[in-house]
Amino acid sequence: METLEFIIYPDGRVQEKVTGIVGASCAEVTAAIEAQLGQVLNQEPTSEYFANQLHQSNQANTQATYSEW
């Protein structure tokens, strides 16, 4: 499940935490929000950022051989 969590501090700072999004695509999800909030002072990638996305394939490789014995 993808989750965006925001903590707004009394001095106006906003802390954003993204969970459930694997890889760097979290930056695409949050780009518009961050543009409206203002200057980004710090970013700390989580382990999900560095995880590889799994891609499943339904492709089967077969090889047929014909031999005349």
Folded structure, characterized:
With 69 residues, this protein is of the alpha+beta class. The chain has a domain at 3-50. It contains two helices and two strands; from the N terminus they run E-E-H-H. It has helices at residues 25-37, 47-50; strands at 3-8, 14-19. It has a two-stranded antiparallel ribbon. Strand 1 (3-8) and strand 2 form a beta hairpin. The longest helix has 13 residues, at 25-37. The termini are far apart. This is DUF2997 domain-containing protein. It comes from Nostoc piscinale CENA21. Pfam families: DUF2997.
Offer a few descriptive terms.
single chain, about 70 residues, alpha+beta, two-stranded antiparallel ribbon, 2 strands
Task: Provide the fold topology.
Elements lengths: L2 E6 L5 E6 L5 H13 L9 H4 L19
Antiparallel strand pairs: 1-2
The helicity comes to 10-25%
Q: Approximately what portion of the residues adopt beta-strand conformation?
A: 15-25%
Mean pLDDT: 80
Number of E strands:
2
Query: How would you write the strand order of the largest sheet?
Result: 1-2
Low-confidence stretches: none
Largest sheet: 2 strands, antiparallel
Rg over C-alpha atoms, rounded to the nearest angstrom:
22 Å
Write the element-wise H/E pattern from the N-terminal end onward: EEHH
User: Helix- and strand-based class?
Assistant: alpha+beta
Protein name: DUF2997 domain-containing protein
InterPro entries: DUF2997
Pfam families: DUF2997
Organism: Nostoc piscinale CENA21
